[in-house]
Amino acid sequence: MAMKIGEKPFKERVTDGIDDVFMRGAVSSAQGRFRSGRLNAAEELGNWEEWRKLGEEIRTHTIENLDYYLEVLSENVSKRGGHVFFAETAEEANEYITNVVKKKNGKKVVKSKSMVTEEINMNEALEKAGCEVIESDLGEWILQVDDHDPPSHIVTPALHKNKEQIRDVFRDKLGYEKTEKPEELALFAREKLREEFLQADIGITGCNFAIAESGTISLVTNEGNARMVTTIPKTQITVMGMERIVPTWEEMEVLVSLLTRAAVGQKLTSYITALTGPKQEGEIDGPEEFHLVIVDNGRSKILGTAFQSILHCIRCAACINVCPVYRHVGGHSYGSIYPGPVGAVLTPLLGGYDDYKELPYASTLCAACTEACPVKIPLHEHLLRHRQEIVEKEDRAPVFENLSMKAFSLGTASPSIYNIGSKMAPKALGAFTKDEKISDGPGPLKNWTEIRDFPAPKKDRFRDLYKKRKKERGQ
Fold first, then answer.
1. SS3 label, residue 50
2. If you count Cβ atoms within 10 Å of the first and of the last residue's Cβ in the chain, which end, N or C, has fewer?
3. Which residues of the chain have pLDDT under 70?
4. 290 pairs with which residues across the strands?
5. CB 98 within 8 A of CB 127
6. Cβ partners under 8 Å of residue 452, min gap 6
7. Cβ atoms of 204 and 97 closer than 8 Å
8. pLDDT digits over 258-272, tens only?
9. What does the alpha-carbon distance between residue 62 and residue 179 come to, in Å, rounded to a whole number?
10. CA torsion 204→256→278→285, rounded to 10°?
11. pLDDT at 475
12. CA neighbor of 290 nearest in space, from 200, 209, 217, 193
């Protein structure tokens, strides 16, 4: 599956994340900043829950009528002289994009940040076709220069690196000679990327929200690179997930207000860019040719299911910024370009349980993600639903877990068996018990007791104490 990053098993990825002390510190610090920013922005707004409810209503209506709005969008893009292609799979999307680049004899592509192009592995497809692809988002560019290190966060892809590490990447890969001061690093990146913008044949962007009524593509950025990508190259290609659409400008304004506040606590980002087709007569900036690639890649299979509301996601990463599991294991542990709670729900739906059956269990079910979501997606309920599907429909629970649950069910269904089992438990676990605690438990207790103590079963059970008290009272 294209969205997959790395080949290590889930437990190894988690261990690597836990052992990365710097990454854990960086993530924890960033989560604190983002969460505080979101709460402050919500408090300033004054009626945050009403905005969330409105956001939920907009996304629910749009997804329930997705076929209609996609048709309206397609017609309006075409009316403005743009080309629209519906890609059912990642392969179809990449084939179309590659063919456009070849027809234009494109040698260099410059692109702005886009999760869906990461999802379909577009860069690799273009590179195989002999094209050079340059990421222009600063975080993505840093990761690309650093041997194509995958992103670890939806909004801040290089969250797992500090300024000293970035300095070393620039020095080793690009001959950088100055210090780790952010101003010097940013100036160096700006000078390098400016050359790429001017040389590029093709510009490729993602899409935050497509506005159906006008055929407009909107981009929400803080660096201005998306404007360079869409104004200098003569050909522009926008790649969007099929759900990233709103009916009108009014809904777009509401969702952008929610997105910027929920993501990093800003009232607005530095740039809100709206692009409507290729350059028209009398216009100075913009591409001469515009292509919109609308990607399905498994999304249509989610429509009409109990998981449909995951398609409401506006990619703000608010759920990631409050998740205690993400804080400790980092983004790469999820093995997908979509990390955190949203990734744990979405990735198995797009990529299947074969590779991602562990992700729904990478959660404490504390519901902080659901509370933070600006469009009220019930993320923790979806995680529970995944677990239920994995066990009941997919029959993928581990053999030992299946046997343990059956034994527990049998034991608790019979009073006499339960009585015998509760009497035997202290003796059976005696070898693992010290000071009334189990610190290195067997079987299903092993993972738990590797990082915390488990209370050992008492010899004097509640029912024994209850009988004793009744006897003492002469009852």
1. helix
2. C
3. 1-2, 398, 400, 444, 475
4. 236
5. no
6. none
7. yes
8. 999 999 898 888 899
9. 49
10. -90
11. 67
12. 217
